Amino acid sequence: MSGMSTLTVNWNKNTYTVPFSAAAGVAAVKQSIQDQTGVPIDRQKIMPKTKKTWKGILKDDFDLSSLPATVECLLMGSAETHLIPQTKTVFLEDLKEEDVAKAGAELPAGLVNLGNTCYMNSTLQCLRYTEDWRKGLSAGKSSSQFTSSLDSAFEQLDSSIAPVPPVGFWSTLKQQYPQFGEQSQRGGFAQQDAQEFLNSLFTSTALSDDASIAAAFGGEKPDAKVLNGAQGLTNSMFGLKMKTVLTCPEAGDAEPPKHDTAEQNVLQCNIQGGVGAKHQIDHLNAGVMLGLDNGGEDVEVHSEALGRNALWQKKSRIDRLPKYICIQMMRFFWKQTPDNADHAGTKCKMMRPVTFNERMDTFDFCSDRLQAILKGPRDKRAAEEEERASKKLRGSDKKEGDEDVAMEDAEDEMDEETKAALAMSLAADEPTEKAGPGLPDNFEGIYELYAVVCHKGRDSDSGHYTGWVRQDGDNWLVFDDDEVVEKTTADILALKGGGDWHMSYLNFYRAIDRTAEDKKREEKEKEAKRA
């Protein structure tokens, strides 16, 4: 945001207009509010009218450049000067619960555990903050009882500060998927797998109507070329188009590779390690690559060239990226128990610690075709960063904006033919295809972590699930059913496993527009220099 913006402050049933510059910071805004209202800075509690601006009380280190040109807020606090109030001050406790929730003045609502429903509660809290998917869900909620009850549960959470019992959705879920209503041998509902619940939910939110898709993409449904095979709401938001290649080393060139494509909404991280293990997976990226390579195992397929079955190498790569990616940490596995009387086997949990980063680069996971699309923006960024570093080393004394002015002067002197040639040259650097629906034109394949479903315990049939969700910047919340606690990014990155503490099971990532990030940073730096 550049130039002056306006903060509309509602206090004491009066309205005040406070112009401000993002470069001046929150302290200057509070000083202006004090000058107009008489409320001392240390008594001011400034809350947004809508949670899309900032969460809770405005903090002194908040980046004002992220705000729109006009912002409306509520001011809580008493004036030091003896101004004659026209009406009584509106205190937080006097607001309706819905207004308090929307303003973000209190921590968001949790979900009541209805009996071993923590797997459902934690997953819903993560999806609650998947904004584009939720817009599509709301637009198509009349399509079925399932989507209607799910959207209603989200709306209840958004308008409440007290824990919400998701009775309506829970009833609909059991009706559509009876396995989630199974009873345990100890009594009560049996614990279920959060990934199995997510898969069922994704299946039931595959809304294909135009209104749902258009709402998810900001009001207009993308054409078939942009969707690139994605079908329905969830698949267009989370769907990965996978390209699989089978090769037969034994047959060599006599046997051509077999190609196939498939759609999936979850990416798997294969976890292996320990004494005697073929692969030692310590990081999410390595586990994802191992999963894409079929766990490092060959598959037996008939070879026409050899006239018999042979071992083939199977490798999959992403050929279309989505705006959101869910990665399942493959911690649960079935262990055969031949020595037991029932020979039924048991479901075990891989406790091995697997680290993950706040940001994830998907380039190595992609097909050659998709890497070619991502390469242009990535190379451009690398060149720009190299040029900036070079200028810094040279100690350039050019003033800010000199290059822009010189370029404008040069363009003024160009004839039309030269301008057209320059435009074509610049356009050649832009990708001709998008990496996936809803992604920026110059997408580089970088995602940021915004939600995690964690599991605590030794197996999936017991233990406990919690949902961890980013609010803004370094601020996170952990939803432990009806209890909500504030956390930081450092707490999230510690969820790597290795013991009986909470460990990540479903990691949710969202695409980053790094070009937009760069522009925002540059504008902030320019305003800071002008101030």
UniProtKB/TrEMBL annotation:
Q: Which InterPro entries match?
A: Papain-like_cys_pep_sf (IPR038765), Peptidase_C19_UCH (IPR001394), Ubiquitin-like_domsf (IPR029071), UBP14-like (IPR044635), USP (IPR028889), USP_CS (IPR018200)
**Region named Disordered:** 376-419
Q: Acidic residues composition bias: which ranges?
A: 402-416
Q: Which UniProt keywords apply?
A: Hydrolase, Protease, Thiol protease, Ubl conjugation pathway
- Give, as one word, the top-level EC class: hydrolase
- EC number assigned by the record: 3.4.19.12
Q: What is this protein called?
A: Ubiquitin carboxyl-terminal hydrolase
